[in-house]
Amino acid sequence: METNELLIDAFTRIKEIVHSVADGLSDEQLAFRPAPDANSIAWLLWHISRVQDAQIAPVAQQSEVWTDGWYEKFQLPFDESETGYAQTSEQVGQVRASVALLVGYHDAVYERTVAFLQSAGAKDYGKIVDKNWNPPVTLGVRLVSIISDDLQHCGQAAYIKGLLPS
Asked: Which of 21, 25, 26, 82 has the greatest count of CB atoms below 10 A from its CB?
């Protein structure tokens, strides 16, 4: 199995979890927060997609899927560049979206990610993509970081779904 096939498998698992968590939830359930400052499922699924999108776009040398109409569809009260990183509790609460919107955006990001990975070769994974760290971040390390972050947030979203009031 090639490296890009393993990475595509990982991103496919993230997509499957996003679909599984979102399936059958109402807008109110998506917005449920188990504690006043906790994240909601809607925020977590939006953030998973935003972070993946914002980090894949530059390495793929493409625009973010978010700026191809999704920003307008979500109508969030944030700057277009917002990904959710370090947002306040109030901002987290402002992320309200339907299953169709959350899953639709994630699927669009997933398709862009897979297209990029299908074009990547073994020599690409060692290329430096971010010199702001010591040591500098390679494409391979960046992709593993995205997968790790997304899977952690998927687990959080699944946990909150299990806490939903009956």
From this structure: 21
Per-residue pLDDT of the chain (166 residues; tens, 9 = 90+): 789 999 999 999 999 999 999 999 999 999 999 999 999 999 999 999 999 999 999 999 999 999 999 999 999 999 999 999 999 999 999 999 999 999 999 999 999 999 999 999 889 999 999 999 999 999 999 999 999 999 999 999 999 999 998 7
What the block records as the tokens of 143 is 């992709």
pTM for this entry: 0.96
Confirm if 81 and 57 have CB atoms less than 8 A apart.
Answer: no
